[in-house]
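QUALITY CONTROL LOG
STEP: pairwise intake check
CHECKER ROLE: data steward
CRITERIA: each record must contain a sequence immediately followed by its structure tokens, with no blank fields

ENTRY 1 OF 2
RESULT FIELD BELOW
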Amino acid sequence: MRLRHIEIFDAILRTGSLTEAAEALHISQPAASKLLSSTESQLGYKLFERIKGRLCATREAEILAPQVARLQQELANVRRLAYNLKHIQQGHLRVGSTPAVGLGLLPAVVRRVHQRQPDITFDLYTHHSGELVEGLRTHELDLIVTFDQTDHPGIKLIPIGHTELVYMSRTDSAGAVRLRDLPRHNFIALEARDPSGLLLQQALDAEGLSLNIIAQVQTHYVACAMVEAGCGNTIVDLITARAMLRPGLTVSRIEPPVRVPINVMVHAADPMSTLHQVLIDALTSVSKSQNLPGDSNT
């Protein structure tokens, strides 16, 4: 199948109409009909049958459909990458981060960078780790800041510091909270796919502990909101805890401590610009200033 054959197949599959498929491809209806005939002739079997005025996929077309959908997504990624390579601006950075970093770290970083170089502008995006990596691969993002420490092909990982996991509850805790005391309380857990959630689960496994989990959430902020509502207690990263601390909530260190790395990821093949380095320096500096609420050096 040629690319044009794939396009007509996908268009008819989506619309169920040769006329609408032609409009989607910006060609005439006779041209679309000829293209479909050419596709089926090359393959040696029918792709669509007309049923009650609509073109319906044959069994062979249904088998092809998932692979064609994946190919169309890859083609869309290639087009997006080509566009992004043309429209990259000088003096401008597109920065992606996890929601925790976006709320708790980036505002201070942008302020610091802008004080040093007022001509730098930013586009800031918050996504989960998988979406950030994909945005970096397609050059929609110049740099991402994440707790993820996975090695991804074609991507360079730069450690810039660390934060820690902390315990959030509605009751005062005298000193650090021990992991072995957590099973006594209802717990709001982060899913294990989350980098912080994975680190916590590894620490619990090392202690042979199992928690009384009443809910598992994808987002750190939801976990904190559930604590505020009185649903239970949670463990999140310190950056999130500082941003979400409300009257009636307390934050405590956990024992043994669990450190969470903060990493920058960039394109491995692309040389880093001065703008990249300015932002990384600011991220490194600001990440070192993240302390527990109430610490004397906060």
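ENTRY 2 OF 2
RESULT FIELD BELOW
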Amino acid sequence: MKYVIFGSLLAISSPLIAEEKAVAVVPDKAANPEWVKLKTAASRYVKAFNDKDAAAVAALFADNGEILLHEDLKIAGHDAIEQHYTRIFDSNHEAKVALEATSVRFVTPRLVVEEGSVHYITGDEISTHLYMVILALQDDGQWLIVQSRNREVTDSVAYDKLSDVEGLIGDWVASVGDNGKFTMDFRWEPSGTWMIGRGRYVSPDTDPVTMTVRIGWNPALAKIVSWTFDSEGGFSKAVWTESSDKWVMKALGVNGEGESTSSTQSIEVVDTEAVLWSFTSRVIGDDMEDDRSIKLVKTPPKPFLTPKSK
């Protein structure tokens, strides 16, 4: 059983607790009826698969549902999907599955994109894939799958190393100063070898600043590394080191005005849905800057609101 630095955000990373981990839930999400329905749909998939019930798995798909095996091959329709899972179960009676949803996004009021990791377990062997499913809200109130795809990542050293910071995956928000707001979201890049982050800082006193982050594994250094680029023309590179209960990053870069920058950053878990991102030893050009920190809180998926009747 493997524990990770963000374990309290995503629970223990062992896939053996399959049904409990169908979707990681924080308290605010539980009050959302659509979120509860989505969690139930994920749990039904885990149960149907582990019961080897191909018909029950197929029933989780919409009439036009499909499984994309790769770009040139797909399985469409209830009958074909049921036959597909029947072949899987006939070839491996012991296989079990566990899901870890790391991102759930409402694209429209009736369409959701869910991403995460799926673990196929046979005895002591575990095969891990990244998955993405698109679910549509049906007229009867059920969420059914319209498209499913996954990609195996068990042979990726980068994915294995980055899984230690997988708790970053998701949407985050922080208050900055009196009126500033910083939002950040992290996603797996489809290959599973990178994590991509997008940030935005807004304040009534300044123009918005956006940033992108790419987090990867440097096999030469045997360390996690990241690159950050902002809309003002600045960029930096950081090397990550695990230290006790937090990650420490040594960052060097250049800002949009051409001045060199450096800082020591750290990320540590505050509670089950928040981390503290601290910046110390900050230098811009020849000037030492004040230390600062922000508390990032993980946010639940935001469904579209039904307009109130007049």
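INTAKE CHECK: passed for both entries
DESCRIPTIVE NOTE, ENTRY 2: The first strand starts at residue 61 and ends at 70.
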